[in-house]
Amino acid sequence: MRTAGGVLLFLEAIHLMLASPGLSSITEREAEEARPPLLLLMSQADGRWLYVGGVLIVLLACLAITFAAFAMVEALNRVLGVTGSDVVGRLSGLLLAALAMQFVFDGISQGLLRPVPAAP
Questions:
Q1: How many CA atoms lie less than 13 Å away from 58 in the CB half-sphere?
Q2: Are 21 and 102 in contact (CB under 8 A)?
Q3: pLDDT in tens, 39-94
Q4: What sign results for the dihedral spanned by CA atoms 6, 11, 14, 20?
Q5: Exposed, middle or buried: residue 13 (CB in 10 Å: 0-12, 13-18, 19+)?
Q6: Which domain holds residue 73?
Q7: What is the DSSP track for the chain?
Q8: What total of structural domains would you count in the chain?
Q9: Exposed site from 20, 51, 98, 120, fewest CB < 10 Å?
Q10: pLDDT in tens, 9-50
Q11: Distance between CA atoms of 6 and 106, rounded to whole angstroms?
Q12: Is residue 94 part of a domain?
């Protein structure tokens, strides 16, 4: 699992380093499929107000963090410019590639190179 995950992360890192910024590969069907988890969480509440309140607080916190991140993007783009933004994206891809390769190496060393214990 670790090796396969590393390979997938590595492919995503390559995409991040080579892709044009601002393009999303998420289809409309995938976006639609991503919506139901909130509904599932709320349907499990069964009238427990503490549970409903907790879900709503976490939802509001996620929305606030996302809003703050989006609000800072324009200011960050003004400071970095197009070239700086591309460099940051490519450096992020490089770091992700390094992490992915570590996953691959860990998976190989723990899965393929580990000796199989002898039967008793």
A1: 9
A2: no
A3: 666 677 777 888 888 888 988 999 999 899 889 988 888 888 888 888 888 888 89
A4: negative
A5: buried
A6: 2-112
A7: -HHHHHHHHHHHHHHHHHSPTT-----HHHHHHTSHHHHHHHHTSTT-HHHHHHHHHHHHHHHHHHHHHHHHHHHHHHHHHHHHHHHHHHHHHHHHHHHHHHHHHHHIIIIISSPPPPP-
A8: 1
A9: 120
A10: 888 888 888 866 555 566 777 777 766 666 666 677 777 888
A11: 9
A12: yes
Instruction: Specify if 119 maps to a domain.
Output: no
Query: How many residues does this entry show for the chain?
Result: 120
Structure tokens at 21: 């910024």
Domain-located, residue 93: yes
Residue pointed to by tokens 């509904």: 39
Residue 26 within any structural domain of the chain: yes
Please give the model's pTM, rounded to 2 decimal places: 0.52
**What sign does the dihedral 81-82-88-92 (CA atoms) show?**
positive
